[in-house]
Amino acid sequence: MPLKRVQQLERKPTVYRPQKGPQELFLSLDCDIIVYGGSAGSGKSFALILDPTRNIAIRGYEALLLRRQSTQITSGGGLWDTSSMVYPDLGGEQKLSPRPTWTFPSGAKITFSHLQHEKSVKAWDGAQLAMIGFDELQHFSSTQFWYMLSRNRSTCGVRSYIRATCNPDPDSFLLTLLDWWLDDEGYPVKERSGVVRWILRIGGEVLWFDSYEEARKMYPLKIAPWKIRQDSNKWRKGNPDNGNKPWDYDPKSFTFISAQLQDNKTLMKLDPSYLGNLSAMFEYERKRLLLGNWHARPQAGELFKTTYWNYIEAEDVPPLKHFKKIVRYWDKAGTLPSDVTPDPDYTVGALIGIDRQDKIYVLDIRRGRLEPADVENLVKDTAEADGKDVAIWIERDPGSAGKSESSHYTRLLMGHDVHTNNKRTSKLVYWRPFASQVKGGNVNIVRGTWNRAFVDELAGVTDGTQTSHDDQADASSGGFMVVARQMARQSTAKAVKNIKVS
Predict the structure, then answer these.
(1) What span, in angstroms and rounded, lies between the C-alpha atoms of 87 and 16?
(2) How far apart are CA 87 and CA 101, in angstroms?
(3) Which of 82, 181, 324, 485 has the fewest Cβ atoms surrounding its Cβ within 10 A?
(4) Contacting residues for 368 by C-beta, under 8 A, at least 6 apart
(5) Nearest residue to 44 (alpha-carbon basis) of 134, 107, 122, 116
(6) Where are the domains of the chain?
(7) Among candidates 502, 454, 459, 498, which has minimal Cα distance to 476?
(8) Would the CA dihedral through 398, 399, 405, 409 be positive or negative?
(9) pTM, rounded to two decimals
């Protein structure tokens, strides 16, 4: 009996295409450097994933997609997750070591990596990368960006190019690069989105031109660098002719494409509530992430409004056994008021707790302007009063002095649970998670004589550039970060416990 022929249904190929508007413009412009974005949810990361796929049939093609932090690459919903939905359909095979990489039948590669530290760029010395993509370029430094531009070269026949996504950040080097595409208030000028200009960087100085011809007219193709910047000797390096050999300066085409959430029709359809989420953010965040404003900064009273706090009486505080964790977090100073420093910083110890319902408590604040020896006595006396069930966290200065001080306090507080934490790099990043909990009504403040000074100080902070004090904001936010990690660990442990093994 003959075998029956089984006809299998052929799978229709998946077609990936950009959405009409900014995303399509980003993927269609033939430009050396394109920066794309300006608002959250505008389809930036997906566009960055699609861009290198146009060249995956070319042997020798290599693309590199970068995030600033290593953990951001493979985090849920990040670049690697998104690529895993697209690249297999295009014949990509993945491997995670030594770096997450997709290899295609032609031999083309798309690699994912990070530049977590300034020196991380050195890992790419000698590389030939036809395409370099920066995801969230505002998080990178200008040094990293310009150095990686020197790694952007190609021998596979594809002209080398840079692609980047971004969200507004007034402290990023990007602000000066994108200035022409923004109005005086920091909003993108719609008519200039996608307009191509030309850029030259000579001796660290960025020069702009409206056309390639204008750049070449001012700086001809063969030009000796000493004629441009006679005060620079950098051109002598590696020049065996001792200055008689001219250099080439190659103008790069550059543009910025602004996009908003409303341009991402797919996300608006799949998650219509996302617009509401952005609208409910702090006002400066709403201006940045929804409206694309590059100048927006928090104003005094915006992060910690006085009306956000929930006051409770001391007798209404749950017993210690009902708390998941209680910590005393110290932000230390060591200067008395004087003619030279009439208004020095305070030493502040914030007692922060989290109960079983994940409610946050500001239980107590200890504060004073003291000399170093008196600071030690305050920390030690407070530890005795709090009891050994309260963990002690102390911010430490960077370098060997901070390590020595940490060891000293560990010995001073022997018998207590003592930890140290590196000083924050960005105050706004440090304060914002705590401020979000306060705004959401999830923070109780125990009534006490310290309340007014505490609430008033936190109401006055902006992004760390304000002239008023922020020591209590630092200490309470630091304490919150410690108890928040406790929340995260317990949530993870609970999730793992609930996993059913089949």
Answers:
(1) 10
(2) 11
(3) 485
(4) 346, 347, 374, 378
(5) 134
(6) 22-270, 306-493
(7) 454
(8) positive
(9) 0.80
β-pairing, 247-248 vs 222-223, is antiparallel
Cβ partners under 8 Å of residue 29, min gap 6: 194, 196, 255, 257
pLDDT tens sequence across 182-207: 999 999 999 999 999 999 998 888 99
Whether 59 and 107 have beta carbons less than 8 Å apart is answered as yes
CB 216 within 8 A of CB 204: no
| Among candidate residues 330, 319, 273, the one with its CA nearest the CA of residue 471 | 330
User: Among 126, 122, 90, 84, which Cα is nearest to 105's?
Assistant: 90
Q: How does pLDDT run across 267-315, given as a tens digit for each residue?
A: 889 898 998 988 889 999 999 999 999 999 999 999 999 999 999 999 9
The end-to-end CA distance of the chain, in Å, is 41
Cβ-contact 138, 172 below 8 angstroms: yes
**Span 306-493: which CATH code?**
3.30.420.240
Q: Tokens 């207590």 appear where?
A: 416
Residue 29 token pair: 């412009």
Q: What is the pLDDT of residues 394-415, one digit of tens each?
A: 998 776 566 777 888 989 999 9
- Describe the strand order of the beta sheet including 323-331 as a list of residue ranges: 310-312, 443-446, 360-368, 347-355, 323-331, 391-396, 418-422
Report the pLDDT averaged over residues 437-449: 96
Q: Which CATH class is domain 22-270?
A: alpha beta
Same fold, 22-270 and 306-493: no
Write down the pLDDT at residue 224.
45
- d(Cα 317, Cα 362) in Å, to the nearest integer? 10
Residue 454 tokens read as: 């505490």
What are 63's two structure tokens? 């693309």
- Cβ of 262: how many Cβ atoms within 10 Å? 14
Residue found under tokens 């050396």: 32
* Residue closest to 439 by CA, chosen among 261, 286, 272: 286
SS (H, E, C) 317-386: CCCHHHEEEEEEEEECCCCCCCCCCCCCCCEEEEEEEEECCCCEEEEEEEEECCCHHHHHHHHHHHHHHH
